[in-house]
Amino acid sequence: MLRFSVLLLAGCLLASNSQANDTLQNRKSAAIMPDADNAGLKLPTGFSALKVAENVGRARHLVVNSQGDVYVKLSGKVGDKGILVLRDLNKDGRTEEVTGFGNYGGTGIAIHNGYLYASSDEEVFRYKLNVNGAVETPYQPEKIITGLINRRQHESKSITLDKNGNIYVNIGAYSNSCQVKDRQPGSLGMNPCPILDSAGGIWQFKSDVLNQTYGNGVRFATGLRNVVGLDWNNQTNSLYVTQHGRDQLNSLFPQFYDTTTNANLPAETMYEMKQGDNAGWPYVYYDPFQNKKMLAPEYGGDGKTEGSAVYKNPAMAFPAHMAPNALLFYTGSMFPEKYKNGAFIAFHGSWNRSPLPQEGYYVAFVPFENGKPTGKWEIFANGFAGVDVITSTRAAQHRPCGLAQGPDGSLYVSDDNKGTIYRILYNGK
Amino acid sequence: MRIVKQFAGLGSFCWGMFFLLCSNAGMAQTASLKSSIERGKTVYVQRCMVCHQQDGGGVPHLNPPLDGASAVKGKDKSKLISILLKGMSDRVEIDGEYYSNNMASHADLSDQQIADVLNYIRNNWSNKVPTPVTPAEVKSVRAKTK
Fold first, then answer.
1. In angstroms, what CA-CA distances link A358 with A347, A408, B54, B62?
2. A424: which DSSP letter?
3. Which residue of B has its CA nearest to A418?
4. Contacts of B89 in chain A (CB under 8 A)
5. Which three-class secondary structure state does DSSP give residue A70?
6. Could you check whether the bond before residue A282 is cis, i.e. omega within 30 degrees of 0?
7. Which of A354, A361, A398 to mutate: most B Cβ within 10 Å?
8. Hey, what domains does chain B have and what are their CATH numbers?
9. A27 falls in which pLDDT band (50, 70, 90)?
10. Distance (Å) from the alpha carbon of B13 to chain A's nearest alpha carbon
11. Phi, psi angles (nearest 5°) of residue A230
12. Per residue in B72-129, pLDDT tens?
């Protein structure tokens, strides 16, 4: 453990040494200097960025406590640590101390009402925080949810909490489109899709009851293939989710789709999900060009036939396959007014568009007005991949995966490829 | 003694014939491997590229790379044939990593197409395996797979 933190510490110090132009004066005044190259990111005017830490492991979601300590959930542990705590001891914005706990890999992490919540791919735990926002008993978590389905595909259990004592957990469908034989060309869809009983939706549990499982929870919303990004919107007091749309239209049904239609269909989607809502997976997918829910080819569709109208319409549609892995409603006051109550989305980046170039690998912003998206979205932070054209996913150096807001209103972004933690600041006037 | 000599003469004749056959077969084989690889590319683009990517690089933690993969470059052709016939969702460690996607069966491809796509992935990117996979080998693994 000691060795581990020393090693990481050395790495981080090296990283911050490259900031040699960080003058003593700046340190004294506790101003956080961005990296000279803004951590390699392209940002709107007035914004800047720094690398908080590098090579921390496969950093999925993250959260920042009241003191500015960063809790990172790793999928795949580093040593026996599945949760890292990054601390900035000299207040230069960069990490000097790395410790950890939580002997499980996973994705979800959140802070709510004095507790840190974190998920493995089957369970959700919580840890009491002390007055300094630190975890008091890292080795005695309370297990609040257990026994959730994990069949490796779409295994992440992302979490968010509301103001009424509930926690929402994504249980991704362990299938692409509920075919009799998953991802087999031409295989038809099971009807009704049996996966939806225990996955392919958002489940609601109590945030303070131990050992809950399916029987104790509520299937809050269904017909969602795989939601990795979700956030409770405190302004609308409702749940928003971002879904990963289905893959492989052309390789499974080449008679109806070619490489171009596959690269552009279906849309990645954001929904406001109320209790009982159904987004229609696997029966329909969303076509952002026709603005219609189309019947999936596994259920008789041919790319032209519309699906049932009973399913929920997305609040917002994005280009296909970009993999929205995190959603965060911005409530801070560091960024300009336009960002307040709007949504940031971390797009992990596509793999399903071959032979066309892959897309995504950036953080987008969706402006909201009066609790509704305005209908336009924009790229907020780009350049994570480090290359302009990505023909193969492995070419991307960094892949945005998690988002968190710091107590000062700065925005943190995690990368689960190389394990870089970014922090984005606004210093324009 | 005479008998031995006669045998020796016959022996060298035989060896000569053998070399002749071998080099002819060798050339024929290179040509046929080349065209098998070309046909294999078409199968790869339609069936495999979506997951294993254009450069055989795969998708981190989701679909394994075929470029440089020890199983792809290895001697066990039956194993590769059987992965294509049965699909793969074993979640076994592949060159030190685990992958979470499901690969479906591609048994609807013909023996020739399976041999072709395997020859393509074994002889593309950084992979160079001159020993070809033949349709007869696919046929025999298919017979045992049922």
1. 12, 34, 11, 16
2. E
3. B60
4. 152
5. strand
6. yes
7. A354
8. 2-145 (1.10.760.10)
9. very low
10. 54
11. -150, 150
12. 999 999 999 999 999 999 889 999 999 999 999 999 999 999 999 999 999 999 999 9
Q: How far is CA A26 from the centre of its chain?
A: 33
| Sign of the torsion angle spanned by Cα atoms A6, A11, A12, A16 | positive
Q: Which two tokens mark A41?
A: 């990111």
Paired tokens of B47: 């069936």
Using alpha carbons, list the distances in angstroms from residue A241 to A214, A247, A345, A348: 20, 19, 10, 15
Within 8 A by CB and 6+ apart from A81, the residues are A1, A4, A74, A100, A101, A102, A103
Cβ–Cβ gap B104/A251 under 8 Å: no
Asked whether the beta carbons of residue A394 and residue B55 sit closer than 8 angstroms, the reply is yes
Measured between CB atoms, which of A184, A351, A394 is closest to B105?
A184
Any idea which residue has 């911050």 for tokens? A16
Buried b / exposed e along B131-143 (16+ C-beta atoms within 10 A): ebbbbebbeebbe
pTM here is: 0.90
Query: What is the token pair recorded at A145?
Result: 């949810």
B40 and B47 Cβ atoms separated by less than 8 Å? no
Partners of B106 on chain A (C-beta within 8 Å) are: 185
- Through-space distance between the first and last CA atoms of chain A, rounded to whole angstroms: 44
Tokens of B68: 């440089």
Contact check, Cβ <8 Å, A392/B57:
yes
List chain A domain ranges: 22-93+321-429
The pair of three-digit structure tokens given for residue A80, joined into one six-digit string: 């026996």
CB-CB contact of B87 with B65 (8 Å): no
DSSP A153: T
Q: Cβ A182–B104 below 8 Å, yes or no?
A: yes
Rounded CA-CA distance A266/A301 in Å is 13
* Statement: residue A224 has pLDDT above 90: yes
Q: Is A183 helix (H, G, I), strand (E, B) or coil?
A: coil
* Amino acid residing at B86: K
Angle at A187 between CA A182 and CA A192, to 5 degrees: 75
3-state helix, strand, coil in chain A (%, to 5): 10, 35, 50
- Please give the residue of chain A at the shortest CA–CA distance from B99: A152
Yes or no: say if A114 and A25 are a contact pair by the CB < 8 Å rule: no
Residue type, A111: I
Residues B6-63 pLDDT 10s? 444 444 444 444 444 444 555 656 889 999 999 999 999 999 999 999 999 999 999 9
ipTM above 0.90 for this complex: no
